[in-house]
Design a protein that fits this description.
Layout (H helix, E strand, L loop, with lengths): L7 E5 L11 E4 L14 H11 L5 H17 L5 E6 L2 E7 L4 E3 L2 E13 L5 H8 L5 E4 L3 H5 L27 E5 L21 H4 L3 H13 L2 H14 L3 E3 L11 E4 L7 E6 L5 H10 L5 E6 L5 H8 L4 E4 L1 H10 L6 H4 L5 E5 L3
Parallel strand pairs: 1-3, 11-12, 12-13
Antiparallel strand pairs: 1-7, 2-6, 3-4, 4-6, 5-6, 8-14, 9-10, 10-11
Helix pairs in contact: 1-2, 6-10, 8-9
Length: 350
């Protein structure tokens, strides 16, 4: 069996979306009725949801309609499923077609293993928990979840993107970001995001990442931190709603990937994040929304425990802010790059 015919789906449990006892994954929204009568078109699912639940917010309507479309038409018998509930990741296989059972949208699942989430890497757990969608395909770290089931998965090779023609990046070279003092290429010009091919984790712990974090902590005020965080999220592909800073809200901005994803409420903290900060953001979430906590410091142990119990919250600490800044540096506006003076250099392609 090859990757091309192996699929792993992550399911976000909201109480109605997971049942070991009944052997299902399931979603509510009973007013929609039997969805198998709809044509396999996303727009038709969205129109149906709009007509039945017109008071739901737009992002939630789109997210739910997309998840239900995948449940009915994209998920197939034999596909694998991973669901985090509490401290446990349950793994199983889809054992039957979509059903509308007792007002609930259901896929039967044979649950095979129940494994503590601590046995999986941090990056793997992030992939199945940080998406704001309740049902989605796992790609990057699927192998970690399939291995306990005896399923071999070959990690896909990263896609090699050619350098944009208007930049001096050579096709046989890799673009790297380094601290000042190294040879300069293309001074004053930003390299397009397509040239950034490394993962944020590849930058973590480097001297340059430490330089970036020190510079951010030294130069950012409360307001410039808001502006910088908004710019970084925009470079990552989000659309940002940044209301005036009243100092009273539990979150500073709203981030939206596109019309198919629910909103992400972003809370910013300059120092250590406490469990009470996490709890306030969690309580501010509306149905269908997700939370993101960003700090230039760290998280207290109690805050990290609270995060483990909150699958719809994602946390980014100071070192990860620095790593993400390096990964997306070439996509930042010049005013933000001016806060962290870095230069683009060539390194040998080994």
């Amino acid at each position: 069996m090859t990757n091309s015919n192996i699929r792993l789906w992550a399911v976000h449990s909201l109480g109605d979306a997971f049942s070991v006892e009944q052997g299902t994954i399931a979603f509510d929204w009973p007013g929609l009725g039997d969805l198998s009568v709809l044509n396999p078109e996303r727009d038709e699912f969205r129109a149906k949801f709009d007509s039945v639940y017109p008071d739901a917010n737009a992002a939630n309507r789109t997210a739910v309609a997309g998840a239900l479309y995948r449940l009915v038409y994209e998920m197939a018998q034999g596909d694998y499923v991973a669901c985090l509930h509490g401290e446990t990741v349950s793994l199983g296989t889809v054992s039957g077609p979509y059903e509308f059972r007792d007002g609930v949208h259901v896929r039967p699942v044979d649950w095979l293993r129940h494994i503590p989430q601590s046995e999986f890497s941090r990056d793997a757990m992030r992939e199945i928990t940080c998406s704001p969608v309740r049902l989605f395909a796992v790609k990057r770290f699927a192998g970690e979840f399939l291995a306990p089931l005896g399923v071999a998965w070959v990690e896909p090779e990263p896609v090699k993107r050619p350098a944009a023609p208007e930049t001096p990046v050579a096709a046989a070279s890799t673009v790297a970001v380094s601290a000042p003092g190294l040879p300069v290429t293309a001074p004053g010009r930003a390299v397009p995001v397509s040239a950034c091919t490394l993962r944020a984790a590849d930058y973590a712990g480097t001297d340059t990442a430490r330089f970036v974090l020190d510079a951010l902590r030294r130069t950012l005020t409360r307001e410039t931190f808001r502006q910088f965080a908004a710019g970084l999220l925009r470079a990552m592909g989000y659309t940002i709603s940044l209301p005036p800073d009243s100092g009273l809200s539990e979150y500073e901005m709203t981030a939206l990937r596109d019309e198919l994803f629910p909103p992400v409420l972003v809370q910013l903290r300059a120092g250590e994040v406490r469990d009470t900060d996490i709890a306030r953001l969690r309580d501010a979430l509306t149905p269908g929304s997700y939370g993101l906590v960003v700090t230039l410091g760290d998280f207290s142990e109690r805050a990290r425990q609270t995060l483990k119990q909150s699958p719809y919250l994602r946390a980014v600490d100071g070192p990860e802010v620095a790593a993400l800044t390096l990964k997306y540096y070439c996509g930042l506006d010049e005013r933000y790059r001016a806060l962290i003076p870095l230069r683009m250099v060539y390194v040998p392609d080994q």
